[in-house]
């Protein structure tokens, strides 16, 4: 099972990315548009979102229960990891189904909150809650062996996967996705077109999950070093803060589409943009700092554990 989990990991991450991408689709009934700034702000009960989340929950929990029936409850996947998974799902619910989604259509600051929830809260929680063994067991039992065999035969795909998951490549990908979607031409295209908006959210979730997965959160031997992981988080915090600062201190409106929608909420478009910049700058910086401290704690714990093992051998 260990070998199968390792070989199936790329397939499972791809499957999860597809399912999570579907949750980024906006609801047609409640979603607010810039052409209708006085429309209702409500919950987004898009059936596709609910169905997608239900499928993810079903496959994950079905796999966890199957693993626990064989190995014992809490073995392979711990109760804490299951709690992380549920917290990640709850965050997706808040970001994609609650009024946060509709508010993001009329307020840039609310849209920024949504993006931060997807990239800096939901993504790391889901990564913490889905170790490779959980993903392997999430595959329906009749498909597990054929999927692993198929992947072993795909040498070119494995090469591409190894390249894409290199720490430096993941770091660059995360930065490109973050900065690219905040270019005015792409951001406003996402505001106006539901399909582009879906792609935007899908790439945010996918790039963020790759970024957090590249860190040694599960203590795997082939994960990048703790020091490099801390450096990766720190430099990402720096460049994302730069983007936040530019939005906060800028005197030019980046996204003119919001000029018709912010007045109803007591904000000028520029004030809304500055508030969005502060959200990217300060709260996200705090989340990155918390991640650095958590990774540092894991590093120190591992060093202490290795020291004890060395002392026991003497």
Description:
With 314 residues, this protein is mostly helical. The protein has one domain. Helices cover 74% and strands 0% of the residues. Helix 1 runs antiparallel to helix 11 and helix 10 packs across helix 11. The chain is globular.
Please describe the topology of this protein.
Layout: H1 2-22, H2 47-71, H3 79-96, H4 99-103, H5 108-129, H6 132-138, H7 141-152, H8 155-164, H9 167-180, H10 184-192, H11 194-213, H12 226-249, H13 269-281, H14 283-313
Helix pairs in contact: 1-2, 1-6, 1-7, 1-11, 2-3, 2-6, 3-5, 5-11, 5-13, 9-11, 9-12, 10-11, 12-13, 12-14
Protein traits:
globular; single chain; mainly alpha; 314 residues; disordered N terminus; 74% helix
Short description:
The chain is mainly α and 314 residues long. It is built from 14 helices and no strands.
Structural domain count: 1
Described by strand count, sense and barrel closure, the largest sheet is: none
Low-confidence stretches: 1-39
Q: What helical percentage do the residues reach?
A: over 70%
Number of strands: 0
Could you report the average pLDDT, rounded to the nearest whole number?
80
- Count of DSSP-assigned helices: 14
The rounded Rg comes to: 21 Å
Amino-to-carboxy terminus distance? 34 Å
Give me the secondary-structure category: mainly alpha
- Share of residues in strands: under 5%
User: What is the 3D form?
Assistant: globular
